[in-house]
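Our consortium's second objective concerns turning raw sequence data into structural hypotheses that experimental partners can test. To show how far this objective has progressed, the report includes one record in full. It was chosen at random from the queue rather than selected for favorable results. The single chain below, 361 residues long, was entered without modification.
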Amino acid sequence: MGKRFIISGGGTGGHIYPAIAIANELKAQFPDAEFLFVGAKDKMEMQKVPQAGYEIQGLWISGIHRKLTLQNAMFPVKLISSLMKSYSILRKFKPDVVIGTGGFASGAVLKVAAMLNIPTVIQEQNSFPGITNKLLAKKANVICVAYENLERFFPKNKIRFTGNPVRQDLIDVTSKKSEAISHFKLDANKKTLLILGGSLGARRLNQLIEKNLDFITGLGFQIIWQCGKHYLIDYSKYNEKENVQVTAFIDRMDLVYAAADIVISRSGASSVSELCIVGKPTIFIPSPNVSEDHQTKNAKAIVDKGGAVLIKESDLESEFNLVFEALVKDQGKQESLIENIKKLALPNATKDIVEEIKKLI
């Protein structure tokens, strides 16, 4: 009989893509396995997971807002509903292992799985774990992490240092440069700047690029600007500008990384792991609006080892132009960043996580 896996995680691309990467590797090793994803209704996983070829069921769950809202008042009701539906899903599907990559939906599923004595694996992407995974850690069998020194959050005997799963097509993007230039219709004689605001986009990053378009193109760059689906209506007009391409989302991340000479990015865990693999000179601008300021911690883990440049959002007005121009004009600095960030790459993360899952079967 084929193995059965439930994988849960979502809300953002940072939780969804690691989940899909793990599923793909499990499928490669267990071709007759059955998979079921569990996510949050109305979140992006409900589209992205079926697009990747997997079935998904949605729970009625959402995060807690910092302010007093009606959604917060509904949280206990949603939580009970999600726990009950998780119980029903698990009893019916009978998985061999349940894997959680973060988000409130994965919290409900892993909590019930642990109560039913089904083996569970947590995959923690960040250098500072979210509340869901911290609460689940005591009952989980294995916790796969991407950063060192997480013993203060998780039981030491359960931690496995694996790194974050990344798309396997990113392992060698250097060979795809000419294909990338053709795909994005770029000028092969110009440098390319890639802007990554995360799967949902980043308002402050978009404002920064809008303000500095002429400055950036004046330094000889063409721009691929991933602004996020919420912001496309505001920024798509810049597609009419020469040397500027604005898109809500990028499907061919392997090609866009191959095309990029410099990257400006938020520092969500998946983006950081991908940038280590592809080895590009990077300026991180962490979002200050995430729990425990974990994006800054993610970026600092790279910056402290000489692998990237960091600008705080609060310092953009005073620092961006100076830092960007200095990096553009310093080829030695660019080469140093490439060398150092590549040392931090963990290209076998997905396979290593799957090895831990196999031990539990």
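The partners drew two points from this record. Residues 285 and 313 are 6 Å apart (CA to CA). The mean pLDDT is 92. Both points have been shared with the crystallography group to help prioritize constructs.
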